[in-house]
Amino acid sequence: MQKIRADVVYSEMASATALVYNPKKTLELLKFNKKERPYVVQLFGNNPEHFAKAVKIITKEIKPDGIDINFGCPVKKLLTLDTVQPFLKI
Fold first, then answer.
1. How many angstroms separate the CA atoms of 23 and 17, rounded?
2. Active-site hit among 55, 67, 73, 81
């Protein structure tokens, strides 16, 4: 019997700011099974400094195969949190 696997597994959307101020709960959300590789962590936020710090934390603690910084998620909750809009303004 052939197993069906995803080509890439993406994490839940994680807040870069949450990782900077109180990473324990967010890191728990981002844990994965090594069988799920390749694994990519998805981040959202509006502060470039928080993204830089969050990437360092994730790289050290989670060790994913990639990190996706979300710049255009149309999810209403994220838009109302003023997370992606600053990056979309020209």
1. 9
2. 73
Q: In terms of Cα–Cα distance, which of 89, 87, 38 is closest to 62?
A: 38
Highest averaged pLDDT of the listed ranges 22-26, 57-61, 86-90? 57-61
What average pLDDT does the segment 2-31 reach? 92
Closest by CA position to 54, among listed 64, 43, 63:
43
Report the distance separating Cα 77 and Cα 85, nearest Å: 12
Active-site residue, 73 included: yes
Copy the structure tokens of residue 66: 């990639």
The reported pTM is 0.79
**In this structure, is the dihedral angle defined by the CA atoms of residues 77, 81, 40 and 7, taken in order, positive or negative?**
positive
Give the mean model confidence (pLDDT) for residues 32-60: 94
CA–CA gap between residue 1 and residue 30 (Å, rounded): 30
Contact 67, 41 (CB under 8 A): yes
